[in-house]
Amino acid sequence: MPELPEVETIRRALEPAIRGCRIRSLEVWQPRLRYPVPPELARIITGQRITELSRRAKYLIFHLEEQNWLLVHLGMSGRLHLTDMAEARGPHDHWEIRLSHRVLRMHDPRRFSLLLKGQGNPGLHPLLASLGPEPLAPGFGGPAWVQALRARKAPVKSLLLDGRLIAGVGNIYASEALFRAGIDPRRSGNRIGATRARILGTAIRLVLKEALEAGGSTLRDYRHPNGDPGSFRVRWRVYGREGEPCPDCGETIRRIRIGQRSSFFCPSCQH
DNA sequence: ACTGGCTCCTGAGGGC
DNA sequence: TGCCCTCAGGAGCCAG
């Protein structure tokens, strides 16, 4: 599923291909996504150039002319395909943007994705306004992070998924980062010392950066839908490994529920 | 102000 | 072989 590193990988691949391209048309086949696709969207964006593609958390922002922009989120099963020419529409293909020589299409079986519009400063949009800091931005993990984490008493695993505290961390990286930091996912934020909070901040950046570097392979999958996605799969240390030995100590990895979400951890390495 | 539970949706996988 | 049940997940929303 698209996590922050994959969304950033998509952004990096897409931006040079679409920057400067003019939108010829927008076709919406299924407007009932996470939020309804605005009916007037096609009228607003047709004829405009894409000036920039940016990312905030797991949101992609397609900047257009006249301070218009499109907000796209992939949800958990959304895929963006950029092709040279229009293809027959398949099941779960919900919309496509036709550019001068290319077509950008959204495929999303579970329909948790979204396509919205905005005008002016994207950061003021309700979905973006309350987002916390970007973990990969310079300076993340300093005093502000330590203070914010320790001000909360929810399980740290849940806090990592709270976009107001930190933007874009998903279920996989929350488990992975806590394993790297040696912190029990059930531990309350306010029971994590300042030193360990800093270590966690570093661990988050580490797992995201590693995945981002491996994301170059996801790029190939993105460009060539026939490619075998399994061969490029990143090897998680604990995520999805219930019952397997911990890569560090050999203890059996456990899976527990925290806030309705699966969490994987090593009971020996994480406290 | 926080926390935890619910919700949207469909495909996959396990049990019988 | 096939049906049914449960679960997975992003993240906003809401009740307590």
CATH level-3 fold name of the largest domain: N-terminal domain of MutM-like DNA repair proteins
Q: What's the pLDDT, averaged over the residues?
A: 88
Described by strand count, sense and barrel closure, the largest sheet is: 4 strands, antiparallel
Terminal CA distance reads 28 Å
Q: Strand sequence of the main sheet, in spatial order?
A: 1-6-7-5
How many helices in DSSP terms? 7
Low-confidence stretches: 216-232
* Element pattern in H and E: HEHEEEEEEEHHHHHEE
CATH H-level superfamily title of the largest domain: MutM-like, N-terminal
The portion of residues forming beta strands comes to: 15-25%
Helix content: 25-40%
Class per helix and strand makeup: alpha+beta
CATH class membership of the largest domain? Alpha Beta
- The number of domains is 2
User: What is the number of strand segments?
Assistant: 10
Q: Can you put this structure into words, describing what you see?
A:
It is built from seven helices and ten strands. The strands form three sheets. Strands 1-6-7-5 form a four-stranded antiparallel β-sheet. Strands 2-3-4-8 form a four-stranded antiparallel β-sheet, covered by helices on one side. With 271 residues, it is α+β, with helices and mostly antiparallel strands. 29% of the residues lie in helices and 20% in strands. It has two domains: 4-129, N-terminal domain of MutM-like DNA repair proteins, CATH 3.20.190.10; 143-265, Helicase, Ruva Protein, domain 3. The chain binds a DNA duplex (16 and 16 nucleotides) through residues 1-2, 32-35, 58, 73-77, 92, 108-113, 126-127, 152-154, 158, 161-163, 170-171, 259-262.
